[in-house]
Amino acid sequence: MSDEYEHKLEAKSDYATDASSVSSPDLDAVPEAELPDQELYHSHSWWTTYVFSQDAKYIGIQYALTAVGTGLLGLVLSWLMRIQLAFPGLGWLDPAAYYQFVTMHGMIMVVYLLTALFLGGFGNLLIPLMCGARDMAFPYVNMLSYWAFVVAVVVLLASFFVPGGPTGAGWTLYPPQAITAGTPGSDMGIILMLVSLILFVAGFTMGGLNYIITVLQLRARGMTLMRLPLTIWGIFTATVLAMFAFPALLVGCLMMTLDSLLGTSFFMPAMVSLGETLTHEGGSPILFQHLFWFFGHPEVYIVALPAFGIVSDLLSVHSRKTIFGYRMMVWAIVGIGALSFFVWAHHMYVSGMNPWFGFFFATTTLIIAVPTAIKVYNWILTLWRGNIQLSLPMLFSLGFIVTFLNGGLTGLFLGNVTVDVPLSDTYFVVAHFHMVMGIAPILVIFGAIYHWYPLITGRMMNETLGKIHFWFTFIGSYAIYFPMHYQGFVGVPRRYFEIYDSPYIDTSTLLLNKFITIAVLIVGAAQLLFLYNLITSARLGKKSEKNPWKACSLEWQTPQMPPEHGNWGKELPKVYRWPYDFSVPGAKEDYIPQNQPPSEIIGAKVEKT
Amino acid sequence: MIVALSIFLITVGSIAFHFWSPWWWTEVASNWGNMDDTIILTFWITGVVFVAICFFVAYCVWKFSYNKDRRAEYKPEDKKLESRLTWATAIGVAALLAPGLVVWNQYVTVPDNAYKVEVFAYQWGWKYRLPGDDNILGKTDIKYINDDNPFGLILEDPNGKDDLLVDAQELHLLLDRPVKFELRTIDVLHNFYVPQFRGKMDMVPGIVTYYWLTPTRTGDFEVLCAEYCGSGHYAMRGRVIVDEEKDYKKWEANQITFEKMLAKNKKNDNLQLVKKDKLTIKKQKNVR
Fold first, then answer.
1. Cβ separation of A486 and B233 shorter than 8 Å?
2. Count of H-run helices and E-run strands, chain A
3. pLDDT tens track for A304-360
4. Is there a single domain that holds both residue A199 and residue A59?
5. Which of A229, A499, B165, B179 could disulfide-pair with A579, CB 3.0 to 4.6 Å?
6. Considering the domain boundaries, does residue A34 fall inside one?
7. Taking the complete model, does pTM exceed 0.90, yes or no?
8. CB burial class (10 A; 0-12, 13-18, 19+) of residue A87?
9. B104, B192, B208, B223: best to mutate for the A interface, most A CBs within 10 A
10. Are A570 and A515 part of one and the same domain?
């Protein structure tokens, strides 16, 4: 793509040379703008500036704060669950409450925290800035997207207060148990969960259209697709995935709502529930699982791809080195995204679907390991012969590499159908997915917050507190999830309220449970330190320079920092190069911003533009 | 320095934990020891990659730490290196996949001589049904389940008469005889799981799923439900006892056939009543 563009560029500059004799502007030529400058909505009151805001930067922060607030509830729920598991004698919870907390923890963390934070939060904040746009393509729809998300969260939380409490069906919500009497919250709780998800999908679709169209249509002059930062590639591809994946969840939720309220039988076969024959017949519980995982697997990458993109940028900036193999990185993101729609049934090897599917899905699943491995190689090769600053974003990125590597490799266990049989539904699975889509992306989120905090507040976060936060979080979460895999080998099943005297589980496994719980409490408490840092640094943090990390990408090149409404002052930026020109031989500085014209850096030997 | 050292120590610590921690799988009690072998193979291949990459990262962090007088290398791409790494990964992945698929093929191909046992799951417990002398399990339908006919056997089907009904949370299996579990649930999803057997499969209402194994050592094993099934999931336990032939026969002789159970319950008149309703029965037969 970039090659094509370069041809055009050459042709244009030839033409320019013929037409005029001035030489330096030719060097700096960029194609004319195809669209007139965006007309922006300007807020007039406090309400329209800070509450019903149509500025993507504010919406991003609103999304992030709402997501983090909900996520904190998820964190507290995990404490309660872990205390029950380690000290069953306390009589802390009853089974119903335990299962309700498991369910709410899972759903909150995957959908309402990670998805909302990466796409709604970082997407809104970074897409217009990094693409060189003034705002999202449809600011009003963008605002609606956020408020739909708020309503979805409120409905979700309301389920804690209805008779029967929230659903305890597990975050996968498998019917028939999700809507039959043996499961806690099977009346009101599950309905509110389904309605909340439907609202979330509706809201997300509004935001998602914005992200896609903004990336495709509103890029600055000269910003070809192959000059986009990998952060944008990750968020963009994840959004495309979400557009295809969420509808499957949406119809699944709608059909289950009908099964529950109107007595249809999409997912309900003839069955007996606690001694009573139900009126349903002929439905297929496995159909729901297919719909759920057709959403659920891409969902893993909806969370992972933005993390991949962001971590690539953090590694490159903080090791002062070009990202290694940019093209391969882009194609790996796109390839992983495409492949992620062909692997969903690896969550269902032992679900009772036709076992012959196992051959197909094991093969596709292991194929996806290849582009994923390429990404890991390119990250570590970016470090190779770099000039590595051990700043907070770099520390968290290194933590990401270790945890993602660990979680990715255990994915090769579970993806390989035979190996999955003894390990599925055990703590090995719990450890795997927490490592790969819990800890790893969250470390990236922390790194990203430390990195872009000055862009939002104009101040730096406290470095010492940040380092303490890093070491507790990284070492602590590794200590939680690495040993947990081995409980899975022993055969400890997941979703057990209590493992009492099982003959095959000796007491030492229970001891391990206690150790893990203590680590969970410590890691959780360390997050309070982060929150403290996050809040106080906004007022007390050291004032940031204009481009504190000396990054090349556009978000740091706005006339004001933090950027104002409309981002770019009078004139939109022009882009002359990719965002990774670090340590270019012959250049004065060790970085060349994307909008620095070639005429200003005559001596630099740039290889890739 | 501290960072590099930490990454190094985490890697070494992980290896040490792997080899010396007491937490490892239970001794296998079925023919699926080859599943353990595929896990070991996966451990070796992924373990080497894990260690190599972590050491590489630790080395880079130590060797290339920031120095303001130095510049990083400028090298956006290296096509040769990238393609080599891609191929090496592809080969490693194939080496993991191929043995896995071979074992999976065995897992889904039930031997002809396998003895069929129905595992019957409900919220929250287990029952079992053995085929009896004719070696055929009688047809069932959920509609016929009542106090007198707890398994919902279709009374018209002669194959069901001699089925042995085990309503006792405890199943005995004969050592070294391949057994096919026909998995049936009357309510929600369950999963019949014995850690020492390694095998696993969900039970889905409306269909009968299956898996097979050959018990290879005698013993008393715990059955756990491995698919979340509601509030009582954690308490849905049972026992499987693998016996030598003599003990097995003794246990088998104590089990009651369906016919005998009906007689005992003196509800044979019920049987007559149901027979009249032939049309429904015909319909139901296809369902099973």
1. no
2. 19, 2
3. 999 999 999 999 999 999 999 999 999 999 999 999 999 999 999 999 999 999 999
4. yes
5. A229
6. no
7. yes
8. middle
9. B104
10. no
Q: Can you tell me the distance from the alpha carbon of B86 to that of A19, in angstroms, rounded to the nearest whole number?
A: 48
Residues A169 and A198 in one domain: yes
Q: Are A387 and B72 in contact (CB under 8 A)?
A: yes
Contacts of A497 in chain B (CB under 8 A): 233-234
Compare CB distances from B89 to A352, A373, A395 and report the shortest one's residue.
A373
The verdict on residue A295 lying in a domain is no
Q: Do A504 and A590 fall into the same domain? A: no
Taking CB atoms and an 8 Å limit, are B230 and A370 in contact across chains? no
Q: What would the pLDDT profile of B89-139 be if each residue is shown by its tens digit?
A: 999 999 999 999 999 999 999 999 999 999 999 998 999 999 988 889 999
How far is it, in rounded angstroms, from Cα A60 to Cα A119? 9
In a domain, A104, yes or no: yes
Residues of B in contact with A504 (CB under 8 A): 26, 195-196, 221-222
Handedness of CA A333, A335, A337, A343 (dihedral sign): negative
Domain that holds residue A177: 53-228
Domain B115-287: give its CATH architecture: Sandwich (2.60)
Same domain, A532 and A603: no
CATH 2.60.40.420 residue spans of chain B: 115-287
Q: Let me know whether A586 and A495 are in one domain.
A: no
B229 vs B121: CA distance, rounded Å:
10
Q: Out of B22, B65, B186, name the one closest to residue A390 (CB).
A: B65
Q: Determine the distance in angstroms separating the CA of B3 from the nearest CA of chain A, rounded to an integer.
A: 8
Say how far apart CA A82 and CA A98 lie, in whole Å: 10
Domain count, chain A: 3
Q: Which of A425, A422, A424, A499 is nearest to B29 (CA)?
A: A422
**ipTM, 2 dp:** 0.91
- Most B CBs within 10 Å: which of A372, A395, A418, as the mutation test of the B interface? A418
Give B-chain residues touching A588 at CB under 8 angstroms. none
Interface touch B205/A502, C-beta < 8 Å: no
Is the model's pLDDT at A22 over the cut of 50?
A: no
Residue B234 CB neighbour total at 10 angstroms = 21
| B66 vs A583: CA distance, rounded Å | 13
Contact at 8 Å (CB) between A53 and A144? no
Q: Kindly list the residues from chain B whose CB atom is less than 8 angstroms away from the CB atom of residue A369.
A: 89, 93
Comparing C-alpha atoms, which of A371, A370, A395 is closest to residue A383?
A: A395
Contact: B14, A482; criterion CB under 8 Å: yes
Q: Which of A292, A274, A80 is CA-nearest to residue B231? A: A274
Q: Do residue B103 and residue A380 have CB atoms under 8 angstroms apart?
A: no
Which residues, in sequence order, are CB contacts of A458 under 8 Å at separation 6+? A543, A544, A561, A562
- Of A186, A204, A228, the one marking the end of a domain is A228
Distances (CA, A) of B39 to A140, A214, A489, B21, B193: 53, 46, 10, 17, 18
Same domain, A502 and A588: no
Please check whether residue A474 lies inside any domain of the structure.
Answer: yes
**Measured distance CA(A333)–CA(A238) in Å, rounded:** 9
My answer on whether A73 and A144 are in the same domain is yes
